[in-house]
Every structure is written in C-alpha cells, then in structure tokens.
Amino acid sequence: MVDDKGKNMKCLTFFLMLPETVKNRSKKSSKKGNSSSSSSSKLPPVCYEIITLKTKKKKKMAADIFPRKKPANPNTTAVQQYHQQNLNNNNTIPAPNWQGLYPTIRERNAVMFNNDLMADVHFVVGPPGGTQRLPGHKYVLAVGSSVFHAMFYGELAEDKDEIRIPDVEPAAFLAMLKYIYCDEIDLAADTVLATLYAAKKYIVPHLARACVNFLETSLSAKNACVLLSQSCLFEEPDLTQRCWEVIDAQAELALKSEGFCDIDFQTLESILRRETLNAKEIVVFEAALNWAEVECQRQDLPVSIENKRKVLGKALYLIRIPTMALDDFANGAAQSGVLTLNETNDIFLWYTAAKKPELEFVSNARKGLVPQRCHRFQSCAYRSNQWRYRGRCDSIQFAVDKRVFIAGFGLYGSSCGSAEYSAKIELKRQGVILGQNLSKYFSDGSSNTFPVWFEYPVQIEPDTFYTASVILDGNELSYFGQEGMTEVQCGKVTVQFQCSSDSTNGTGVQGGQIPELIFYA
Q: One GO biological process from the UniProt record (predicted)?
C-alpha cells in the first residue's frame, strides 16, 4: 500500500515484477499444460515491488520540448519539409518500451504525430491530383478540436477508416495536426492562409489566432489587398482593420501590387469606395483596368476593352474620374477606350463648363489621410556662423510604439532670407535603405519647417529603431533646433529619439536638423 501522504509528493512510481517469481510461475504453467482456470488460480500470486523516486524536475513547456528546427532547403515544398520533419515517425515502429524514452505526455503525443502506429483513421487531404494520405488518432484529434470530437464521438458520428478533405492543403493540415499533437505552432508565409482556413474549419482557435498574428506582422503594401479579402472571408475584424491602415497609407503601392489583381469583386468595390484612400485617381483608374484584364482571364473571356468594362460593371463609376488632374484625364482615362464617347465629352465639360453636366461618376475628391507631425525640438535659433552643411549628413534615430507610415521630414530653411535647397532624404533600418528621395524645396527665410516627401510612405514597425538622414545643399546659414526631447507624445503614438552614428554634421538629440517626422497613423 502507498501511504496517503504520498499523494502530495512529487514522485515517480515504478512497478517491477520480481525475476524469481516470474521464473517460478513460468515453470508451473508449463508443467500443468492445458489445465482448467480453477486450477490455474491456485498458482502463487505474482509479487511486485514498488519503488518510489523523488524528483524535482520542472514541468516542461512546449518551447522546451519542441525547439524550432533549422529552416529546410528553400527548394523543397512545404509538404516535403513537413515530411522531412516527421521522417523518423511516419510509418515506423518505435523501439520496444519507447514510451519510457519520453518523460512527458507532450513528448509521447509528439511521437504519434503523422505516425501510422495505432492510427485508427486516415485523411486523404488536398484537391484531386495533389492529395496526401495522413494518419490520425481519433482520441488525440477529438481532444484538440470540437469538430473532430463531433466527427468521431458525436451522435451522428460515422465509423469511417478514411476521410477525404479536398478543400484543405496537405501542408496546412499537417501544420494543424502538429499543433494538436505537439502543442507547437510552426507557420510559413506560403501556407499561413491555408492553415488559418484549416484552423477555422476545425475550430482550433488558438492556432487561428497565431495565424492572424503572423499575418499582421508580415503585412505590407504588397499583400494588404489579398489579406483584406481573406480577412473578410475569415471574419477577422482586427486583421481587416490592419489591412485598411496599410492600404490607406500606402495606397499607390498597394494598388500597383500583383496581389491587387487577385482580389474578388466585392473587395474591389470596397477599395474603390474608400474615402481615405491616399492615392491619385489616375493610379486608382489604372489599377482597376489591370484588375479587369486579369478578371477576363479568370472568366476565360478575350482581353478586350469591351470585356474589361463588362467585368468592372458598376464598379467603374466608383472611380472618381472627374477629380483627376486634367492632364491625367486627357492623356490617360480619356484615351483608354473604356469610357463611352458621351462619358468622355461630359467629363471634359465638367472640367471646363460653367454649367456642369450630371455624371454617373463620383465627383467629390477623396479626403485621403491627414499627416501628423512629430516636432522634437522645443525651440529653434540661428547664429552668424551656424548652421553650415558642406555636404555632410545630419541624422537621428527614432522608434515608435505603434505601426506608422513615414511620409517625409520637416526641415529648416535659410536664416538669411529666402533660398532654395536641394535635399536628399533617407530612411534606414539596420543599414538597409527603406526609402529615399532627392527633391528641392523653397525656404522663405522664416523659422518654419518645410516638408520634404518620400515617393511613397514607408512602413515603420513598433519597438525598432530606424535612422532618418538628410544631406542638404543650399544656403549654408540655416536655422537649427534646440532643447531636443528624447521622447515625444504625438496623438496616440509615442516617439523616442537617440543619436545616430551616421550623423557627421552635429545633429543629435539635443539639437540640430530634422526637426520633424511627418507620418500617417
């Protein structure tokens, strides 16, 4: 008997059959041969020795048990990578007493991942021509998913040895199984959307949340439109909001991306309706035509002007053509062939006539986004021998606590009357150039700041230092900032500043140039 007090002890208990007893029992059994059950019950009882070992071993977490593996060969597919990871498990018979090799239930469950040993169900996953047969264990799956529980143990459960799942990619299904069996989340950029679909379908909420977090951190102008479409499909409002933030601020980049042509018609309409879209209307028009060309191909229609207009339908009138610059309209939309002759004439009259015709197109310009300015100096000054440039770099490092989009810098001008400056602005992260531009601006001799813009807003992630730099060429005597602040609260965004080793002209936290960061948030 084990004392009740032992219940509160951290211990390992082993039940060992004594060798001598086993030997004696074996001999007696062989002598009697085919004896009755009553006679066999008279055999000496088997003795067990109870050994209790105290242990102070800490409970392992998933991260301790399942360290991340090194990246696989980039030339292999995601499915091949998963097969490689489970090569030692899949379709193999573990060594005798393999259970004793793994101290925790998580490790023992992990052995069963993608393993035919004791598998009581198989899944044929993937579309026809690209299927993969994967083993499963009903109990483990039912513990990890309410859908699997209903499938195997519910009132309408069907006793099938093989289940076909044509709408889920094999790599995504394996990623979900890996989470259920191993308590490990292993996501990849090329399969995360498919994994999110699988997690939603089988109601595995924590994996779905991890997929959404992965998508949010990898969100950019290149994939924002596609992710917007998917986030609406998966009913993920937080991800949808993040997508809109990127699309609004970096609209021209998003509209020119290849992913924009892959969105569905409903998403296209929602983007064209967007009031805060920060883009020229000619860019919106050209993006819509690019989408229409790809849509013709999807519908197996000849790519023609007539079919482009056909697939656009009423979405064409969501493009605010009357708000284009006259040159953009005359050289672009008017000559595209998509507009009818009457529409072209009416829009020309809209530009020039006092009595404007009625148009089906939206004629109010988009509001776009209002840029915010973070001013880091409490005062500015000028002296007879400062500030001089001589082709040197003024630089400062900054970090934010929320994702923002840097549109440009506010710079000082001449302290000796009006002057024109040439400015090369640059934005870097860990030495990698994220954005740069060479432009000119006119200074009126006041102590005001003057905006200099990047070609496209640059996405800035939180809690990482970036380097803002400028090289100015013009009147050497300029205003400069004083009483610099290491931290500035600008609306809901907190900006921190620190000195940059790239600065070779005296700019630092306390004083110098680059007085303002201009951004969208």
A: cerebral cortex development
The hierarchical CATH code for the domain 372-520 is 2.60.120.820
What's the token pair of residue 518? 């201009």
Q: Name the CATH architecture for the domain at 79-87+96-218.
A: 2-Layer Sandwich (3.30)
For 314-354, give the DSSP string.
GGGGGS-GGGS-HHHHHHTGGGSS-S-HHHHHHHHHHHH-S
Contacts of 227 (CB under 8 A, 6+ apart): 215, 219, 239, 243
Q: Which two tokens stand for residue 244?
A: 């809109």
- State pLDDT tens for residues 163-211: 999 999 999 999 999 999 999 999 998 899 999 999 999 999 999 999 9
Q: Are 429 and 411 in contact (CB under 8 A)?
A: no
Give the span between the Cα atoms of 150 and 161, in whole angstroms.
Answer: 16
Share of the chain above pLDDT 90, in %: 66
pTM for the full predicted model: 0.74
- Residue 418 backbone phi and psi in degrees, to 5: -65, 150
pLDDT digits (tens, 9 = 90+) for 73-101: 544 444 444 444 444 445 555 667 888 88
How buried is residue 327: exposed, middle or buried, by Cβ count under 10 Å (0-12/13-18/19+)?
A: exposed
Q: Classify each residue of 435-447 as buried b or exposed e, where b means 16 or more C-beta atoms within 10 Å of its C-beta.
A: bebeeebebeeee
